Recover the amino acids of this structure.
């Protein structure tokens, strides 16, 4: 606009200095997303961003005997079906819905269901960071984590409490 080059550079630097806090505010969430993504590609899952941050401060590692850390493969440890649903029915529906997923927890469900005849899920959709949904044997099925199912109005406090009990034992509750 007719000003000198020095004038323009001074204004550009002023804008960068003033906007710097914004870029710092974005750096942390981006670093957490990248770290979680790289970890997931290598089969390492973090429950929370604070768990990922805390991993950088680890000085001692103690491995478990169940195989989750030593083998890098989560496994299904508990099946708690609702009234009127058998464990086999619950596992069959969950495995059918998870059959197309590459998520490590889906693989654990499929390993537990090995040998069961699985109906094919239609309209199966992954809901990143939340769960999965689809239709199995004409029944709409939704599966996922506590917060997501609460948002959908499906999870009541009794089931959330059961999940919290499992989480306190170091387990990852999934609901279907």
């Amino acid at each position: 606009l007719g000003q000198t080059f020095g004038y323009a550079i001074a204004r550009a630097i002023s804008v960068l200095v003033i906007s710097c806090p914004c870029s710092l505010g974005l750096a942390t969430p981006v670093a957490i997303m990248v770290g979680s993504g790289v970890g997931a590609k290598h089969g390492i899952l973090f429950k929370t961003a604070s768990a990922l941050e805390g991993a950088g401060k680890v000085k001692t590692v103690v491995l478990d005997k169940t195989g989750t850390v030593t083998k890098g493969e989560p496994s299904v440890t508990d099946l708690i079906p609702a009234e009127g649903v058998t464990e086999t029915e619950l596992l069959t529906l969950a495995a059918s819905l998870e059959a197309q997923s590459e998520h490590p927890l889906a693989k654990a469900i499929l390993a537990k269901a090995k040998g069961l005849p699985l109906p094919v899920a239609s309209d199966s959709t992954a809901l990143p960071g939340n769960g999965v949904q689809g239709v199995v044997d004409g029944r709409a099925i939704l599966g996922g984590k506590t917060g997501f199912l609460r948002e959908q109005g499906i999870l009541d406090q009794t089931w959330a409490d059961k999940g919290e009990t499992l989480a306190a034992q170091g387990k990852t509750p999934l609901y279907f």
In short: Helices lie at 5-41, 49-55, 87-98, 104-112, 146-151, 157-168. The first strand starts at residue 122 and ends at 127.
